[in-house]
Amino acid sequence: MGEFELIRRVFWRATGATPGVWLGNGDDAALLASSPGCVLAVSSDMLVQGRHFLPDVEPQALGHKALAVNLSDLAAMGARPLAFTLALALPRVDEAWLRALAEGMLTLADAHGCALVGGDTTAGPLTLALTVFGEVAPQRALRRDAARVGDDVWVSGALGLARLGLALLRGELAMSGAQAEAARAQLLRPTPRVALGQALAGLAHAAADVSDGLLADLGHILASSGVAAELDVEALLREATPPAVRDLPPALALSFVLAGGDDYELVFTAPAARRDAVQAAAARAATPVACIGRIVPGEPAEHPLADGAGRVRLLDTQGRPYPLPEGVRLAGFDHFATIAA
Amino acid sequence: MGEFELIRRVFWRATGATPGVWLGNGDDAALLASSPGCVLAVSSDMLVQGRHFLPDVEPQALGHKALAVNLSDLAAMGARPLAFTLALALPRVDEAWLRALAEGMLTLADAHGCALVGGDTTAGPLTLALTVFGEVAPQRALRRDAARVGDDVWVSGALGLARLGLALLRGELAMSGAQAEAARAQLLRPTPRVALGQALAGLAHAAADVSDGLLADLGHILASSGVAAELDVEALLREATPPAVRDLPPALALSFVLAGGDDYELVFTAPAARRDAVQAAAARAATPVACIGRIVPGEPAEHPLADGAGRVRLLDTQGRPYPLPEGVRLAGFDHFATIAA
Predict the structure, then answer these.
(1) Predicted complex ipTM exceeds 0.90
(2) pLDDT at residue A341 above 60?
(3) Same domain for A120 and A35?
(4) Which residues does the record give as substrate binding sites (chains A, B) (predicted)?
């Protein structure tokens, strides 16, 4: 058995276990069917060693995270996961490492009924590129361009924890105990908010997942929708910031909460009149959410893909400009910097 | 404008140009609809610098080839291209290089009505991972496990030319003129047999594209289908081998034709009673095809992904074992070896 055959077999499952998968991996292409009335939601993410993960990362955690960040994109569309493909470049073939990678990835896939339906393997610097497919009724999809003036701005879970985990991993900060463990887990094994995304489909207007930082990702919504936002920084720190981050020096805490990447929470907008319905949807999905601001008028973007972080106004609870402490860094996560930097 | 925004803009197109694309790139996921009665065919391929292309490759040719090898997988399913995603790792951002890459890729995409609907960009060793989506009626799809005893074995176009192009590029062989140019073009800018694949859907039984070499790729069909094949080597050399390859020393010519990768022709099986229909389909697709053998009984494979090159018997026109000259190398294209080796 050659190296390729080993790799294919490690990831192989018999077709038939997942509804909608007519033909799984092993052919030139997989065959997928979507439900009547639904369209297919498709998203790709690539993880490169030294940028998105350290060389000594546990393979099981890497397999989990590579799929989790892709499922997070489906969550941010309100889509139900259906299947995914994996393209894998490996410097060498280590069977135990590969089996652990496959276990981390396929365990999360099974939890979401999401079948691995194909891929490619090659020698090369360690790189994983995944493409996920989900389904959603197109009128219910959570599009970035759907935020409306008068919407509330909401965020799920807690922000800044993954950035704290990165600081601990890099040795920039020292901390021990359960909070340090939670921060590392948020970075290494994030939970995609798949149930929340589906619960919000048809209820929320716009959504994005927080992969590059709150300002950057909310900015994408604002630019696409041609609006601006006012954020209540005190509400954000009170209701959507974990204690371990809130207790850091203020400049660091705000940098992590506003611009820390990799949390994979959802930021979304919904009509102010539907606050109770949003809370009920979050309760059904067993996911905490917090209302942290509102959508206000803004200029149309000069390009559909323009950045929009500058459209976010940071206010205190009285509606005055929030006094940012010195040393706050609000640039989003830079994928052209290395995680090991 | 940051580097990411530049990259996104270079590849960006407005949604709406391609039927079936509800929402194109720029959101967390694209939204795709398939036609009633069709399922979605999905395939991924990854290209790594130094393995699949040389560092000095022309970016336009690289963009073309990265999409062509993925479209070739759709062709081998009999599917109509619909859309694709691109995950791109780049060591640095060079706008002119990027624009040329995008032009090579999007020109081929436009020729097939195949929209770029999403992707990801990161810093890293130059790597392209594409996932393509097509549609096909599931009963008409050209599956690898559908070859039947009594089928003919066919191949499109000509084999071995891309491997000759690689030998010229590496300086292993010297040749000039139109034939050398054609060999280089076959390697650098292959033509995916998309029209032929669709013309064969519902007519041929099984198909695969010849990316790893004829024996390896026909072997996948044979193992999946639990059959074996007899190939008429003289017919193969006469009807599916370009003069530039046929005129090489016999051991080299046979190595290139039987095991040279990267040609992206189709190998397929069809009932012997449908020979005229196959020729008519090929004529409609303006693609030459040649009948080079037949499917015979074989053992079920011990694993659905097992290799099957050993199931191919090489015969002369009288049905006797073909006398292979010394020095023939029949191992398939090894992606763990470098293209620059």
Answers:
(1) no
(2) no
(3) yes
(4) 52, 262, 333
